[in-house]
Design a protein that fits this description.
The complex is a heterodimer of chains A (282) and B (174).
Chain A: E1 2-5, H1 16-28, E2 32-35, H2 44-50, H3 52-69, E3 73-74, H4 78-93, H5 95-105, E4 115-116, H6 118-126, H7 128-133, E5 144-147, H8 156-159, H9 169-176, H10 195-198, H11 200-216, E6 221-224, H12 227-235, E7 245-247, H13 248-255, H14 261-266, H15 273-278
Parallel strand pairs in A: 1-2, 1-3, 3-4, 5-6, 6-7
Chain B: H1 3-12, H2 25-29, H3 40-48, H4 52-56, H5 60-63, H6 69-73, H7 80-93, H8 101-117, H9 122-133, H10 140-148, H11 162-172
């Protein structure tokens, strides 16, 4: 199958491992990725927090470009995913806005493009059974808690993704990889997001709590699908509370025996190698 | 109805905020309420009472992380997160100065990065943020680590059609 691919700004920098692991896993699953032509930033949080029309125009420019390819667009970053879905939602609800934005971006925007995140594509289009078949090294002993964060799921009528108070798709993918996901009540609790530079103390408090709850749940690591959540969980918690954090696609690549994981893990701030070595997974 | 309330509702262009009956699900679910000067539902009440200066001068509106928990749980579909966006926009448009200066400077650095390259170059954006806030030394070690690991490249590809990107900024300017 073939999909359009919108990496977004983070995946080329702080989220490098996510980009590379999504690509490796997609390749192994027979999903061809065609990068959206001449893409630009989606605006993330800063656009909508300061300028509504800008926050719709920036994603709309990319939606218009992706629509030309006529394929579903896969968007790994949770913020980009959320902004694309929000822009489509606003353009659908407000005809006058749609006209205005189309005039600004100089393109028409049909609004019928399917915007999907990789959890959705892998679990629905490939299916959990096929994913399990691809596993060459079960992640036995790895006990992740699945951290979905905010933007993949909320608002539910915009994101149209998993159960917004108790999502399960990431857990199911981890199970398919042979890991032993632990259940916990913080699946969708905010990490503090973009406050990481402006209000570091708030982020530290939020991620410290996540780490504490992860430990209480009996987890030895966390798994996520958002570059900002990853950065916050990987870098901000107090030393003594830290657990290794992974992008879910890194673990998929590890379980599927694909090349890359060892290099990606070196990019993490909290080194996952000791944990993985102790489980003979590395 | 007060002018402030009317203006906020007009900008939100959705469910009028006075539909709130203060069940406090928003404030209970808000992950940063512990750090806020006024809870989300208190802000709604203050708007209804016409407390324009206090609301626009608050730190609350800048601390909102747009996690959308409030929006998801409100039984009356009040778009509290959008209300926070609207209040921030009003502060910026009126040149009132943000109570949380660093947070606004972060947004400005972020958007300046898009305007100049179509895409964010993260180290450049962070450098710009640190220069404008004077917050030069926090996260220095972490930044250096990331740089050494090759995660922060000072050169990154730009969007080719920068004309279209600049047009978006010019046409949506306030």
């Amino acid at each position: 199958m073939k999909v359009s691919y919108y990496p977004g700004c983070s995946l080329h920098a702080t989220g490098k491992e996510y980009d590379q692991s999504v690509k490796a896993v997609s390749r192994a699953l027979g999903i061809e990725l065609a990068e959206v032509n001449d893409w630009s930033c989606c605006g993330a949080s800063s656009a909508h927090m300061t300028n509504y029309r800008l926050s719709v125009a920036l994603p709309a420019r990319n939606l218009a470009s992706a629509e030309k390819a006529g394929l579903d667009v896969m968007v790994p970053c949770a913020a980009c995913f959320n902004r694309f879905k929000m822009a489509q939602h606003h353009l659908r609800e407000n005809g006058a806005l749609k006209k205005e934005i189309e005039e600004i971006i100089g393109e028409s925007c049909r609004g019928d493009l399917a915007v999907r995140n990789p959890i959705d594509v892998f679990s629905k289009d490939i299916g959990l059974e096929k994913l399990a078949e691809k596993v060459t090294r079960k992640l036995a002993g790895l006990k992740p808690v699945s951290y979905y964060g905010c933007l993949l799921l909320r608002p539910p009528e915009v994101c149209e993704f998993d159960n917004y108070e108790n999502p399960v798709l990431l857990d199911k993918i981890m199970e398919a990889m042979g890991a032993e996901p632990r259940n916990w009540s913080c699946k969708t609790d905010c990490c503090g997001g973009s406050l990481t530079l402006g209000k570091t103390d708030i982020v530290i408090r939020l991620v410290d709590k996540l780490m504490t709850m992860a430990r209480e749940a009996g987890a030895n690591c966390l798994v996520t699908a958002c570059p900002v959540c990853m950065a916050n969980l990987d870098m901000r918690p107090r030393e003594e509370l830290r657990l290794p954090v992974f992008y879910f696609t890194e673990l998929m690549a590890l379980a599927m025996g694909l090349p890359g994981p060892t290099e990606w893990f070196k990019l993490h701030n909290t080194d996952p190698a000791p944990l993985l070595k102790s489980l003979a997974l590395l | 109805m007060g002018a402030f309330l009317e203006e906020v509702n007009r900008r939100i262009d959705g469910v009028p905020i006075q539909r709130c009956y203060h069940c406090r699900k928003c404030s209970a679910g808000c992950p940063v309420a512990f750090a806020m000067e006024y809870n989300p539902n208190k802000v709604i009440k203050m708007i209804q009472m016409g407390k324009r200066a206090e609301v626009l001068g608050s730190s609350t509106i800048w601390l909102c992380a747009s996690c959308e928990t409030c929006v998801t749980r409100c039984p009356n579909d009040v778009d509290i997160a959008r209300m926070m966006d609207v209040l921030r926009e009003m502060v910026i448009e009126e040149g009132l100065g943000a109570r949380e200066k660093k947070i606004l400077k972060f947004h400005e650095a972020f958007l300046a990065g898009i305007r100049s390259g179509g895409r964010i170059n993260e180290p450049m954006m962070i450098a710009r943020y640190k220069m404008t806030t004077g917050d030069l030394f926090s996260d220095l070690k972490m930044g250096l680590d990331m740089f050494m690991k090759g995660k922060l490249s000072l050169i990154s590809p730009k969007t080719k059609d920068m004309t279209s990107v600049r047009k978006i900024f010019d046409r949506t300017k306030k």
